[in-house]
Amino acid sequence: MKKTIKACLIGYPVGHSKSPLIHTTIGKIKGDDVSYDLVETPPESLGETIERLFDEGYDGFNVTVPHKCEIFKYLNEVSDKARVIGAVNTCLRDEHGYSGYNTDAGGFERSFVEIGIELAGHDCVVYGAGGVARAVIYTLIKLGAGNIYVINRTTEKTLELKKDIDGFFETDKIKVSTEEEIMALGTPFYCFQCTSVGLGEGNTDCIIKNPHFLDNCFFGYDTVPVPEETGFMKMCKSTNTPTIGGVDMLIYQAVIAYEFYASHSVSYEDISKMRKETGL
Ligand code: ATR
Fold first, then answer.
1. Residue 143 near residue 117, CB atoms below 8 Å
2. Which of 133, 199, 274, 279 could be stapled to 194 by a disulfide with Cβ–Cβ 3.0 to 4.6 Å?
3. CA 46 to CA 203: how far, in whole Å?
C-alpha cells in the first residue's frame, strides 16, 4: 500500500547529509510519497524544534550530531536498545510526541553480516567510545565477539560505555586499552574505526599511530560514511589488511529507519536499485 511519509533530519550542521537522497529515492522505488527535509537545529533550540515538527505533522525524523543523547529528555519512550547504546538516531511520531530508536546498530549489523566474516569468539579492537562506537560494540557483543579492546582519547567515556554495555549483556568483554598494550598481547583481531577522525571531504587523517599495529589485524572496518578511501582504509590497504568504509552502514541505518516510517520492508533488490540510482 502506498504510504505518505513526511520526515526530516535534525542536527547541527546537517548540510552535508545524504539522508534526503537515500529516503526519497527509496520512496520513489517503493511507490511511496516521501518528503525528507534537512532541519538545522542548534543545541539551544532542540526542544522547540521537536514541538514544531509535531505541530507540522512530521511522521518521524532522524537525529545526528550533536543531539543523539540530548534528545532523550524530549521523547515519550526510548527503546531498550537505544537506551543501552545511549543514543537515538530515529524518532517516530506517536499520539503525544515522538519515541526514540537506534538504527545505527542494526545498520552496522546488516553491513557486517553481509561481509560474511565469522565473528564468534574473535577479539576486536574498537577506536572510539562515542555514539557510533557504542552501537558497534553493542552489536559485536550481540554477535558473540571475544574480548573487545577499546582505544579512546577519553578513558572515562570507555569506562561509562563498559558499565552500560557489559552491564546490559552481563559480560566482561570490554577492556580499556592502547595500541601498545594490544601489540604486546600479540592477539589477532578485527578492527573497527568508530571515531570521527577522517570525517570531512578530503580528510586523510588516520587514528592509528603505528602501522605495525595492523600486523595482527584480519580486517579493518571504518564507520566514517564517506565514499572516498579514508586515511584508515589507506593504512589498511598499505598493510594488505582487507577493509571496508562506512557507506554500507549509513545506507542500512537509513533503510531500517525507512522501514520504521513506512511500516513495510525494503528488499535487497530495492536497496540495489537505490544504490545504482544515487551512486552510493
Ligand atoms: P559519534 O556519534 O559520531 O560517535 P561522538 O559521540 O562525538 O560522535 O564520538 C566521537 C568519537 O571520536 C569519540 O570517541 C571521540 O573521542 P573522545 O571520547 O575522547 O572525545 C573521538 N574523536 C573525535 N576526534 C578525535 C581526535 N581528534 N582524536 C581522537 N579521537 C577523536
1. no
2. 133
3. 29
Q: Using a cut of 0.90, tell me whether the model's pTM lies above it.
A: yes
Reported confidence tier of residue 200, pLDDT bands at 50, 70, 90: confident
pLDDT band at 199 (very low <50, low <70, confident <90, very high): confident
| Contact between residue 219 and residue 241 where contact means Cβ atoms under 8 Å apart | yes
Distance 47 CA to ligand 1 centre (A): 25
Q: What are phi and psi of 114, to 5 degrees?
A: -60, -30
Q: Is 193 in the pocket of ligand 1 (CB under 6 A)?
A: no
- State the pLDDT at residue 16: 83
Q: Is there an atom of ligand 1 within 6 Å of 264 CB?
A: no
Which 8-state DSSP code applies to residue 73?
A: G
Apex 82 CA angle, 261 and 23, nearest 5: 30
Strand partners for 56: none
SS3 call for 163: helix
> What cell numbers appear for 88 in the block?
537515538
Alpha carbon distances (Å) from 19 to 154, 169, 223, 252: 30, 31, 16, 11
Q: What is each CA distance from 30 to 10, 90, 105, 107, 121, in whole angstroms?
A: 24, 20, 24, 20, 39
The Cα angle at residue 28 between residues 27 and 30, in degrees rounded to 5: 65
CA distance 248 to 275: 10
| Residue in 71, 107, 77 with CA at minimum distance from that of residue 93 | 77
Any ligand 1 atom below 6 A from CB of 158: no
Report the alpha-carbon distance of residue 1 to residue 230 in Å, rounded: 41
Q: What gap in Å lies between CA 135 and CA 137, rounded to an integer?
A: 6
